Amino acid sequence: MYWFFHINRTNSPFDLNYEVIELLDDKVIKIVLNIGFRIQPKVELYFKRIVQNLVDNKELNLHIRADGSTKYNSEPDFKFVIIEKFLSVENEFAIRDGLLLNSYYILKNMSLSDTRAFGLDKSDVVLEEIPIVYQPISKLDLDRKAIS
Length: 148
Fold this sequence. Notes:
By secondary structure, the protein is of the alpha/beta class. It has 3 helices and 5 strands, in the order E-E-E-H-E-H-H-E. The chain has a 3-stranded mixed β-sheet with strand order 1-3-2, with no helix packed on it. Strands 4-5 form a two-stranded parallel ribbon. The longest helix has 16 residues. The model has no long low-confidence stretch (mean pLDDT 86).
């Protein structure tokens, strides 16, 4: 199964609710979690509770426990994939743009990680890095050398 879990920070301080959208019957499910700005996100805890509610209400045709384990596999099978963006080396910046973007990523690396900010256990997280091409290189002087 694949779960798309979207976290939406709301302007109401104590909102805590969710929506479940089944994209493909018991295979792909999207959950939109609305969290108020004063509530600490404990995403893994909320996710397990949502799955347990879906199983209890027989909305999912699964044979899993709240922690993600089954009677055949006692280990939880939940993995959270966090998509991290980074600047590709295929960018060509003006000095100002390069300075701004590199400063942003330096500050981002010094800040709280997404794993800790979302309240996830490190053992359940997989980080995927995706390159961002903001300004592709327009002129590339690359000549083929003739073999004699």
